[in-house]
């Protein structure tokens, strides 16, 4: 999970230095990055994590509307709230600012406390939106992608890679017994520990999600099937050696079975690729569990 920075970073874009100075003095409780052109703003946005942009409209070179257009077209920056702060107060400009995705419009000369209040409100709203976005995409027990997000990201990976895409299905072995023996809460702890162990071993670019109760799916890109076979074996062995401590003295171990499949010319869809891994998983279960089958 990413560590949240407490101090927000605000990019302030204005070609007039005295305006920048005034805004900087008002926003002193934040980390503020001042720039004097739209071009510089876009450069900073490529390098820094920005939480909000205060954007002038009238500037030589790129104007504020063009900057806003540019950053809204980029997936990395499109969700950053933009507050226009400008001397232009005609209705056409105000309407255009909102149409381009601005969240607020402040006219110069602005009132310091009002500007601060607006900044605070929009930062707060953005935090709520980000939190909701996180909750909507994660499995609440394990923190990995939920089924919906897994399929969304897996579909993108599948479409981007005609070759070298592999699916892995993982299912905990005899997990019902663990619940029956130690209780559902202990089962949850085991589920969380195993998920973390798997997550730690997967390459960062892989897509990993909980797709069923004790069933997980992975989509991964690799140059050779052996890479994936080895990875899955390492995961399987690591999980089999995992000892989960419950309370002071109870220890629980649980194994996993894994099925793998590679995308070929005959693979028709992501569903098809996952189904193939599911068939292999079924064989791993039939073969005695705690094994992986390609
Ligand atoms: P197999 O090796 O054939 O997969 O056996 P299994 O017992 O793992 O499979 P089965 O499908 O019979 O049971 C799955 C169990 O997983 C039953 C269900 O209660 C448990 N389970 C599913 N989701 C959760 C969960 O979130 N927490 C806990 N504690 N148990 C869960
Ligand atoms: Mg200006
Ligand atoms: Mg199971
Ligand atoms: Mg299952």
TrEMBL record:
<dbReference type="GO" id="GO:0043709">
    <property type="term" value="P:cell adhesion involved in single-species biofilm formation"/>
</dbReference>
<protein>
    <recommendedName>
        <fullName>diguanylate cyclase</fullName>
        <ecNumber>2.7.7.65</ecNumber>
    </recommendedName>
</protein>
<feature type="domain" description="Response regulatory">
    <location>
        <begin position="9"/>
        <end position="123"/>
    </location>
</feature>
<dbReference type="InterPro" id="IPR043128">
    <property type="entry name" value="Rev_trsase/Diguanyl_cyclase"/>
</dbReference>
<keyword id="KW-0597">Phosphoprotein</keyword>
<feature type="domain" description="GGDEF">
    <location>
        <begin position="163"/>
        <end position="294"/>
    </location>
</feature>
<dbReference type="InterPro" id="IPR011006">
    <property type="entry name" value="CheY-like_superfamily"/>
</dbReference>
<dbReference type="InterPro" id="IPR001789">
    <property type="entry name" value="Sig_transdc_resp-reg_receiver"/>
</dbReference>
<dbReference type="InterPro" id="IPR029787">
    <property type="entry name" value="Nucleotide_cyclase"/>
</dbReference>
<dbReference type="GO" id="GO:0005886">
    <property type="term" value="C:plasma membrane"/>
</dbReference>
<dbReference type="GO" id="GO:0000160">
    <property type="term" value="P:phosphorelay signal transduction system"/>
</dbReference>
<feature type="modified residue" description="4-aspartylphosphate">
    <location>
        <position position="56"/>
    </location>
</feature>
<dbReference type="Pfam" id="PF00072">
    <property type="entry name" value="Response_reg"/>
</dbReference>
<dbReference type="InterPro" id="IPR050469">
    <property type="entry name" value="Diguanylate_Cyclase"/>
</dbReference>
<dbReference type="GO" id="GO:1902201">
    <property type="term" value="P:negative regulation of bacterial-type flagellum-dependent cell motility"/>
</dbReference>
<dbReference type="Pfam" id="PF00990">
    <property type="entry name" value="GGDEF"/>
</dbReference>
<dbReference type="GO" id="GO:0052621">
    <property type="term" value="F:diguanylate cyclase activity"/>
</dbReference>
<dbReference type="InterPro" id="IPR000160">
    <property type="entry name" value="GGDEF_dom"/>
</dbReference>
């Amino acid at each position: 999970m990413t560590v949240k920075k407490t101090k927000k970073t605000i990019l302030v874009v204005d070609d007039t230095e005295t305006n920048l100075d005034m805004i900087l003095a008002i926003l002193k409780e934040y980390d503020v990055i001042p720039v004097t052109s739209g071009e510089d703003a876009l450069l900073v946005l490529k390098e820094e994590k920005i939480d909000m942009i205060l954007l002038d409209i009238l500037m030589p070179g790129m104007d504020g509307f063009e900057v806003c257009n540019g950053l809204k077209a980029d997936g990395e920056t499109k969700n950053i709230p933009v507050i226009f702060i400008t001397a232009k107060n005609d209705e056409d400009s105000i309407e255009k600012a909102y149409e381009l995705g601005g969240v607020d419009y402040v006219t110069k000369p602005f009132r310091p406390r009002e500007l601060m209040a607006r900044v605070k409100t929009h930062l707060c709203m953005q935090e709520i939106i980000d939190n909701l976005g996180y909750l909507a995409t994660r499995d609440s027990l394990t923190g990995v992608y939920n089924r919906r997000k897994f399929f969304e990201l897996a579909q993108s990976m599948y479409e981007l890679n005609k070759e070298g895409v592999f699916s892995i299905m993982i299912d905990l072995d005899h997990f019902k017994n663990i619940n029956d023996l130690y209780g559902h809460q202990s089962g949850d702890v085991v589920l969380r520990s195993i998920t973390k162990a798997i997550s730690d071993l997967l390459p960062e670019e892989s897509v990993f999600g909980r797709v069923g109760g004790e069933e997980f799916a992975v989509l991964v890109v690799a140059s050779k099937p052996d890479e994936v076979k080895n990875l899955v074996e390492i995961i399987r062995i690591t999980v089999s050696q995992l000892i989960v401590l419950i309370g002071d003295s109870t220890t629980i171990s649980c194994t996993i079975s894994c099925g793998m499949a590679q995308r070929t010319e005959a693979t028709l869809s992501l569903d098809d690729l996952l189904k193939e891994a599911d068939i292999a998983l079924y064989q791993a279960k039939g073969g005695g569990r705690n094994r992986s089958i390609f």
